[in-house]
Design brief:
By secondary structure, this protein is of the alpha+beta class. The chain has one helix and five strands.
Length: 82
């Protein structure tokens, strides 16, 4: 979506995503039309790899972490008003 290769992408393609990868984080930006699918898929990947998930865009988002048994627990709530 952004960066040096952005001009070569189809900007109207809702499947195009933007990534930022750091030492302890992967941030992914998706089109709003893909929000439900992206949430499902990314949360599934987080569970598969046993890492945390920060649902930053949801009205009732939060931080989810695995507990000792591997179940995911919301450890921080985020409330936004749009």
């Amino acid at each position: 979506m952004n960066g040096p290769l952005a001009a070569h992408l189809h900007n109207d393609d809702s499947k195009v995503s933007d990534y930022c990868i750091g030492k302890d984080i992967i941030y992914v930006g998706f089109a709003w039309s893909e929000a439900a699918n992206a949430h499902r898929d990314v949360f599934s990947c987080a569970k598969k790899h046993g890492v945390g998930f920060f649902d930053v865009s949801a009205n009732n988002g939060g931080v989810w972490l695995p507990d000792r048994e591997g179940a995911y627990v919301r450890v921080f709530n985020v409330t936004t008003k749009r």
